[in-house]
Design a protein that fits this description.
Layout: E1 21-24, E2 29-34, E3 50-53, E4 70-72, H1 74-79, E5 89-93, E6 101-104, E7 109-110, E8 114-120, H2 124-142, H3 152-156, E9 159-162, H4 166-204, E10 225-228, H5 229-232, E11 233-236, E12 239-241, E13 249-252, E14 256-259, E15 279-283, E16 288-290, E17 300-302, E18 308-310, E19 315-319, H6 323-330, H7 333-340, H8 355-358, E20 362-365, H9 369-407
Parallel strand pairs: 3-7
Antiparallel strand pairs: 1-9, 2-8, 3-4, 5-6, 5-8, 10-20, 11-19, 12-15, 13-14, 15-18, 16-17, 16-19
């Protein structure tokens, strides 16, 4: 029995009940323009003011912002297959990077990897998001195949569904435009805070070959002390069987110590027959944990979750110093580079940094714990704000995905 074709999306604004219509993509615009590349050896072609975009200039999830890197002249357009495309057109990647698209608010030209929709007949913002939804599905279906793109004929014959009510189109488009504005706002905040944190880490910790930070809290003037990591941390070697008091935890680069159920990657250890009799490594709140085989990718962090058990393949340390202060030292780029000098193993993916070597690395430590605490608290606060924007960003992206799937067909 044939599957019944959907005639309307699951989610709609009140007052709209008419069926959506099935059309071809070629029906939504009055004309379509291919792109072309002017002679790259002719420098005079590339000193103009006409934006010339290529696939790499577009982002997968941002249809409103294009990173324009090249500009061509009118002569370049006249002498080559490049075309001058009018404002308010939609540029769609049809070859390498198929599925990316962007709204162009100014006249532009493209490489041959594009097909541009010109003079849109429907509400422009609605069409943008409808295409984003539809073409992303086409792009997903092409992944993992030998097909590197989609032809102009295939694209224009692409089956789409739209509602003929302009007011409903407008309301749908505005929902996604507002959502994208919020996503971009939190993305910028997240990126800005990440850059600020990086800059402040360089200011509040001594530079290479220095013994004092460039920026200090008031009343702290003494030089920091050079010590080996092993002088400020002690390895925790206790093992236990899992229990209610000692639950299984996971540790991963970029995630730190988390419940086993929240780990992004598959964890086959859960399937072992001796899961409840096997002993695992104990870790407590504020321990420094690292993966000897994954230092290269930043798998070293402070346990911010709490008591539990992790795989014995990891190494965990306790410290009498301020844990958040030591965390920033061992997560620094300089420390990682020093650690990687000790990598052992012939297979790149299996190279590891033994704990016996890690603890020999020289670090600089603030002699007063008051200063350590101030620095630790400062970066804890920044990390809280960064995590807040990251979580908000993830939720907004999930909401956008849900609405795309339920407000279009």
């Amino acid at each position: 029995m044939a599957k019944e074709e959907k005639k309307a999306p699951k989610l709609r604004f009140n007052g709209y009940t008419n069926d959506w219509e099935r059309k071809k993509l070629g029906d939504v615009a009055n004309s379509y323009i291919n792109g072309g590349t002017p002679d790259t050896q002719n420098k005079n072609y590339w000193i103009g003011d006409i934006p010339w975009i290529q696939s790499s200039d577009l982002k997968n999830d941002d249809i409103w912002n294009v990173n324009i890197n090249k500009y061509i002249t009118n002569k370049a357009v006249n002498d080559s297959a490049a075309k001058l495309i009018p404002t308010n057109s939609i540029a769609i990647v049809t070859r390498v990077g198929v599925g990316k698209l962007a709204y162009m608010s100014q006249e532009y030209s493209t490489s041959q990897d594009f097909l541009s929709l010109v003079d849109i007949k429907e509400d422009l913002i609605f069409i943008m998001y409808m295409l984003y939804f539809k073409i992303s599905k086409v792009s997903s279906s092409l992944q993992g195949t030998s097909i590197k793109g989609i032809t102009k004929k295939e694209l224009l014959n692409l089956s789409i569904s739209i509602v003929n009510n302009t007011a409903e189109q407008n309301r749908i488009g505005q929902v996604f435009k507002i959502l994208d504005n919020s996503i971009n706002l939190h993305e910028r905040k997240y990126e800005e805070l990440t850059l600020i944190k990086k800059a402040l880490l360089q200011k509040l910790f001594p530079k290479k070959d220095g013994f004092k930070p460039e920026v200090r809290y008031k009343n702290f003037n003494d030089a920091w002390e050079q010590r080996k990591l092993g002088e400020v941390v002690e390895r925790r070697i206790e093992k236990r069987r899992q229990s209610e008091r000692y639950p299984r935890l996971a540790f991963a680069s970029g995630q730190g110590v988390i419940p086993l159920s929240e780990r992004k990657t598959n964890n086959r250890e859960q399937l072992t027959k001796d899961e409840f009799t096997k002993k695992y490594l104990v870790t407590e709140l504020d321990d420094i944990v690292y993966n000897p085989a994954n230092v290269k990718y930043g798998a070293i962090d402070r346990n911010k979750y709490g008591r539990g058990l992790i795989s014995p393949i990891y190494v965990t340390f306790t410290t009498e110093e301020v844990p958040g202060f030591i965390e920033r030292i061992v997560k620094s780029h300089d420390f990682k580079q020093k650690a990687l000098r000790f990598e052992e193993g012939t297979v790149t993916k299996r190279q590891s940094v033994n704990p016996e070597d890690l603890v020999t690395i020289n670090i600089l430590v603030a002699s007063q714990k008051k200063e350590q605490k101030k620095i630790s608290l400062f970066f804890d606060n920044i990390d809280t704000f960064i995590a807040l924007h990251r979580r908000k960003l993830e939720k907004l992206k999930q909401l956008k995905k849900f609405l795309l799937q339920n407000m279009f067909i």
